Amino acid sequence: MINKYPLWKYLLIITVVVMGFIYALPNLYPDDPAVQLTGQRGSVQLTDTELNKAAKALDRAGISYFGQSVENNSGLIRFKSDADQLKAKTVIQQALGDNYVVALNLAPTTPQWLVDIGAGPMKLGLDLRGGVHFLMEVDMKEAIAQRNEVYISEIKTLLRTERLRYRRITRDDGVISIRFKDEELREKATFLLRNEFADFTQVEREADNSFYLDLQLSEEAVRNIEDYAVKQNLTTLRNRVNELGVSEPIVQRQGRNRIVIELPGVQDTAAAKRVLGATANLEFRLEARSDSNTLDTEEYPFRNNPNRLATLERDIIITGNSVSNAQSAFDENGVPQVNIDLDSQGGKLMNRATRNNIRRRMAVLFVEHKIKTTVVEHAGEKVEKRTPYVEKHIISLATIQSALGNSFRITGLDAPGEASELALLLRAGSLAAPIYFVEERTIGPSLGKENIELGVTSVQIGMALVVIFMLAFYKVFGIIANLALTANLVMLAALMSMMSATLTLPGIAGIVLTLGMAVDANVLIFSRIKEELNNGMSPQMAIHAGFERAFVTIFDANLTTLLVAVILFAVGTGPVKGFAVTLSLGILTSMFTAIMVTRALVNVVYGGRQLKKLSI
Q: In whole angstroms, what is the distance from residue 347 CA to residue 317 CA?
């Protein structure tokens, strides 16, 4: 019998449409503004005690909140408005101190039964939802200082190799001073260093019965180091964002020494802030001998026991910059560790240092650049003052049993979370210079609420016009087409939610285009049915012929458009990709609804009946 589907096909269509409605439902539940709290390091635990302390601070400040909770070492406090959220962040940070990260977030309100089946709202781009905005500043002074430390180590090695004895090497405000006992040694060193370190300008002077050679980086060399520091930090931050799995982030340079990071709709902004802002690095140094010159040594505490100290050589074997891969794991006793792989140069330096120092102890020094935030009065207003400082702690001090190569492990970490975080930072790449948060805020839609409302309104107007057109021209068939069109929009939203696709304002344009293409398929089918009726064909045969003969035309038209959408997605970026995603998914859903759903509804209304005419 024509125009009748078998039962299994009806059930399949109903199942697909119902599942579409279910997985599109989370988009009806907007997120709450929230503040998220986590420890500054993975080993710092956050409990109800800290959350209650934050809540009491909010009560004293007269800021209303609701829905506080602690889960997976992360606290969340919800607010009714963005204004309360922004005020609360400063109050909570002052109450908890610098051991905790306080970050702005958006807390989902999706019902638990939808979460349990894997349903969630679609991600919205920066132009629709906004997100978190970080403005970070690269410490150029420290970048130069770190580079000078590397130069000092290389200069020492070179002078020792050439047997040019020096009394002392110091660094003061960008100037490296080498002290010699006589002029002849200084002259030889001047000639040697002029050839090996062309980036320095040299100045000879005498003082305190000694002969000094002062080295200072040229302006061009300073600019190159600063430019490299920003570019390297950009690359590292992009890698860290990729590790976080944020869709369509913005990481770009701003001015001479600043970097802007915008993360649309991330679910864990506290973790993002901790990972992005972490300037943790490693230094591998030998423990100093008992007869070492005190000027060539430094004393550091252990991380897990600050009262225990060890004296290390100033010379650094390698840093975390030489790490090519890092993975967290557990040793044979279940203690967290990080397995390290070095690049070829790092492996050579490590092998050379350990080969010649078997039975000596080598330390792994954990270096963190931090910011201490205090609130001070300025012009009658309270403002935050940020003071950078450096913390260095020993996390491991072990005896070298044999020469090490490109692979080894680091132990002495407090918790698995800390091991995972350290591995992530090393794997993503070390920062070329410390970087600090200058500004953090939630950002509204970049095109403004008015334009967003216009975008949504355009979808509503477009659909309304399509509905009116179909009802006016095709009557009962128009009602069927409108029902299929509604199912199309719902299934498109469900697919984007299930695939975690990002909806942008250009994506809304893709949805509007999808409406036109979806109804265009129905117009082709219905026009064909009308044509067959005018040619004298019976209503049932006209319906059958209309769907069968219009299919090839619809398929060809949508296939070519789908190929264009795929190409746009492959070569485009940002907004172009957003348009391509909604267009391509819309083509697939419109093909299904215009052919399968519309045909099923027509079959239910007209199939198996004796018809004299059609309402079309």
A: 10
Strand ordering across the sheet containing 74-78: 66-71, 74-78, 32-39, 100-107
pLDDT digits (tens, 9 = 90+) for 29-57: 878 888 888 876 655 677 888 888 999 99
Using one digit for the tens of pLDDT, what is the confidence trace for 513-557?
Answer: 888 778 888 888 888 888 888 888 888 888 888 888 888 888 888
Q: Which of 178-192, 251-265, 374-388 has the lowest mean pLDDT?
A: 374-388
For residue 534, count CB atoms less than 10 angstroms from its CB and return exposed for 0-12, middle for 13-18, buried for 19 or more: exposed
The CA R_g of the chain, rounded to the nearest whole Å, is 33
Within a 13 Å sphere around the CA of 54, how many CA atoms are in the beta-carbon half?
A: 31
So what's the pLDDT on residue 38? 81
- The reported pLDDT for the residue numbered 279 is 61
Q: Is the dihedral of CA 309, 311, 315, 317 positive or negative?
A: negative
Give 251's strand partners.
261
Between residues 214 and 499, the one the model is more confident about: 214
Nearest Cα to Cα of residue 104 among 124, 129, 82: 82
- 182: burial class by Cβ within 10 Å (0-12, 13-18, 19+)? exposed
Domains and CATH numbers, the chain: 7-26+448-606 (1.20.1640.10), 32-107 (3.30.70.260), 141-220 (3.30.1370), 222-443 (3.30.1360.200)
CA distance 221 to 148: 11
Residue 572 in this model has a pLDDT that exceeds 80:
no
- The two beta strands, 502-503 and 123-124, are parallel
- Work out the percent of the chain whose per-residue pLDDT is above 90: 10
Tokens of 320: 């975390």
Please calculate the CA angle 456-500-9 and round it to the nearest 5 degrees: 90
* Integer Cα distance of 175 and 553 in angstroms: 76
CA distance 596 to 373: 62
Q: How far apart are CA 283 and CA 374, in angstroms?
A: 30
Alpha-carbon distances, residue 296 vs 153, 287, 397, 510 (angstroms)? 11, 11, 19, 65
- State the pLDDT confidence band at 313, using cuts at 50, 70 and 90: very high
Q: For 437-470, write each residue's pLDDT tens digit.
A: 888 776 655 555 566 677 778 888 888 888 898 8
As to burial, measured by CB atoms within 10 angstroms (0-12 exposed, 13-18 middle, 19+ buried), residue 506 is: buried
The CA-atom distances, in angstroms, between 35 and each of 89, 363, 382 are 7, 38, 21
Q: What is the mean pLDDT of the chain?
A: 82
Q: So what's the pLDDT on residue 491?
A: 92
DSSP notation for 202-269: EEEEEETTEEEEEEEE-HHHHHHHHHHHHHHHHHHHHHHHHHHT-SS-EEEEETTTEEEEEEET-S-H
Give, in degrees to the nearest 5, the angle at Cα 393 between 388 and 396. Answer: 155
